[in-house]
Amino acid sequence: MASFPVMKFGGAALADGAAVRRACAVVAERAPKRAPKRPAVVVSAHAGVTALLEREARAVAAGKPRGDEVRVRHHTLLSQLGLDPELLDRHLWELATVLDELRGRGEPGRSALDFVLSFGERMSARIVAACLREQGVAATAVDAFDLGLSPEGALRPLPAFDSAVRSALGAVGGIPVVTGFLAQDGAGNLTTLGPNGSDLTAALLAEALDAGEVQLWKTVPGVMSADPGLVPAARLVESMSFSLAAELAGQGASVLHPNALAPARRAGVCVRVLDVNRPERAGTLIEEHEQAGGAPRAVAVASEPALVALSVRGGGPALAGLFARMAGARLTPRFTLAEGGGLTVFVPAGEGVDALARESTGVSIAREVASVAVVGHGGAVLGARALEQLHEAGIGVERAFLGSGRAQAFLVDPDHRVAAVGALHEGLLEAPLA
Ligand code: ASP
Ligand code: MG
Questions:
Q1: pLDDT tens digit string along 34-63?
Q2: Ligand 1, atom 9: nearest CA belongs to which residue?
Q3: For ligand 1, is residue 422 a contact (CB within 6 Å)?
Q4: Are residues 291 and 320 in the same domain?
Q5: CA–CA distance from 147 to each of 120, 167, 186 (Å)?
Q6: Does residue 245 share a domain with residue 201?
Q7: Any atom of ligand 1 within 6 Å of the Cβ of 180
Q8: If you average pLDDT over every residue of the chain, what do you get?
Q9: In whole angstroms, how large is the CA radius of gyration of the chain?
Q10: 381 Cα to the center of ligand 1, angstroms
Q11: Looking at ligand 1, which atom is closest to the CA of residue 117?
Q12: What digits encode the pLDDT tens for the residues 256-304?
């Protein structure tokens, strides 16, 4: 059994020069440097760069002049790290050319946008590989989109993927530093795997390479019992099962990519969420069966700040049309309700939802809500206790989704979202679990 890990570093773990250096030290310290035991590293774009590139592409396409932030940001990183200031010139030049081609063209299409976004990961891979070499570790940046990673095949990659990955990564000198997030569609065009897509890249590589572990290096201690930004009393969840973690991701907890667990689970590879600032700590272990004593076993989740309720007239065909459009726009419906002849679809608020409603016949924006959930064992009994907590906290629940599954979810007023997740955490997770 191979024992090397696939080590993935998220954008926050690579936010500036000091962070990149710390991440590289983690790789250098923990990793045997020689094949076949050497690790593979997967990187996200530096924190905020993906969003910056997206804004830049939209602004330029709308006729605004091209900004300088992306170049300045990367040059600052190079200078903070004492790396060759010309390391990224080819990429920055190409990016400028691509943006110039979008100028004044109006709302960029998905593939044009993805191409612009790809520069984030392509440049961070170059920076991390160069920083590793500075630290005396042989490393080579690798672009993952030509490895045959495709979003259509992401849940089950094409048969040729394993051998393409093995030969491509086997051929590079030193530790491969692979771009996360980037893939290729069926027609061979570059595309992307969605927010936190690098988690999925790491899991697919681990499956293809028969790695011993997927390590997701972040700037949080691990999976927490609630978002610590919303609930200061949140605690580390030391271990959880794949199915609980998948449910958590599906309820909108931003800590994991919703599809990233499937390949790891299929391959029998465990996933660890680790803190790059405290690399000696064990973080959260996600595997088939959770460890006894890995309490708390439940997590309170507040999903995106707001969900838009879309009301759909015209029944199944209208709904099918809407779903197809949402898939094209990469919007994931969180809940769908059919009742009294009407259909309501709840999607995370954000750019694109307004346009979606405008362009789809029979679809209108009804209102905004927020969803909060408790993910854990206990089924509807846990759900009923959660409902009671919300009631005691004076929080009105518009709808409750209780069931025998591992998630009990509630729709509340967006203004009550933080109070609701706090009440669930305090009532169900801060008290000792029965
Ligand atoms: N850079 C992409 C994002 O910000 C992918 C990732 O970080 O995994 O979502
Ligand atoms: Mg990210």
A1: 656 788 999 999 999 999 999 999 999 999
A2: 195
A3: no
A4: no
A5: 18, 10, 13
A6: yes
A7: yes
A8: 89
A9: 22
A10: 36
A11: 1
A12: 887 888 889 988 999 999 999 999 999 999 998 876 654 456 788 888 8
